[in-house]
Task: structure prediction
Amino acid sequence: MISFTLLLNLLFAGVLGTLVVVAVVRAFDPRPARARAIVPLALLWAAAVLFMTLRPGTGLGVRLNLVPLIVDGPASALDAVLNVIVFVPLGLLLALTGIRLRSVFALALALTLVIETTQYLTDLGRTADINDVITNTAGACLGWAVARGLQHIAGRAGATRRVVPRY
Result:
């Protein structure tokens, strides 16, 4: 029998996967997306992330970790990779609106600081971790870079199509 937690995790993964697919497909249009088209998707991402990060945890481990870039086993490495992946859709979506990288960096950093501070202050059995701040911010920046790269490729392909004569 599938547990409720597993179902929530699968739903979360589905939401993130869907957002990535939508953003990647949209990235092939070199024109900036309108904010009103991206805002609902960004709000969906934010709701999913807030739900997953602010719900009660297991209560295991420490309440606060301020030691950066320590990977003390496979679970810690997996957590770092997953944190990067979770914030990639945010960077993808923000890039589609034409927002600059430094703004994506600042927004991802601010959002992560709010999440980590809330985890610490509410003491819901979750660890407020400096590594989450680093990996979440890196994930958003990576998503931005991927989207901009796809937009660049799409722009070059569009320019090639316009130059090549049709016979």
In short: Residues 4-163 form one domain.
